[in-house]
Amino acid sequence: MSATTSVDDRLAAVEARLRRVEDELAITRLVLSYGPAVDSGSAEATAALWDDGGRYDFQDGAPVIEGSAAMASMVRSPGHRAHLARGCAHVLTAPAVRVDGDRAVALCYSLMHHYVSETGIFQVSRVSANRWELVRGPSGWRVGSRVNRLLTGDEAARALLAGG
User: Fold this and answer.
1) Annotated domain spans of the chain
2) Element (DSSP H or E) covering residue 111
3) Which stretch of DSSP H or E encloses residue 51?
4) What is the CA radius of gyration of the chain?
5) Separation CA 42–CA 124 (nearest Å)
6) Rounded to two decimals, what is the model's pTM?
7) What CA–CA distance (Å, rounded) separates 27 from 24?
């Protein structure tokens, strides 16, 4: 900054940078908290990540989960409970976050690990590209949309990662 830049201008610039860093940290924490929430079977903690009207499109052809109440129902579902009973872990990588005012996009990978009781080891059963669209509301950042696609060589997964 030039010597003629006022203290107020410099302070405003620092505050803006700090807010961006705080936003990126809050979004990173939100994304990384998905795995522990869903793997602990905490329907409420998982649902709290989503905006009331948030969507989760997790697989081509599968029904889109719409709304935080539907996210809670997914965690309570027999299918999800069966995954937990067999041993599983939803592991997300640190996201690349881009904030634009009260909206943000986060790109990352997710890996689904399942316990194989016959061998006593965990095996990666899914690797997906993820695009999270987030909105800032009165209670902070929430998921407005999450889309993931399996990294099977299909263009859809690469397009998610390129569309940051």
Assistant:
1) 7-162
2) strand 103-116
3) strand 50-57
4) 18
5) 22
6) 0.91
7) 5
The pLDDT value given to residue 58: 87
pLDDT digits (tens, 9 = 90+) for 92-150: 999 999 999 999 999 999 999 999 999 999 999 999 999 999 999 999 999 999 999 99
* DSSP annotation of 93: P
Taking each helix axis as running N to C, give the angle between helix 78-86 and helix 68-76, from 0 to 180 degrees, rounded to the nearest 10.
50
C-alpha of 50 from chain center: 9
The pLDDT assigned to 106 comes to 98
Q: Which two tokens stand for residue 119?
A: 């061998």
Are 51 and 137 within 8 A, CB to CB? yes
User: Distances from the Cα of 75 to the Cαs of 55, 69, 81, 162, in angstroms?
Assistant: 15, 10, 7, 29
> Which residue reads 């889109």 in tokens?
64
What fold does the segment set 7-162 form as a domain? Nuclear Transport Factor 2; Chain: A, (3.10.450)
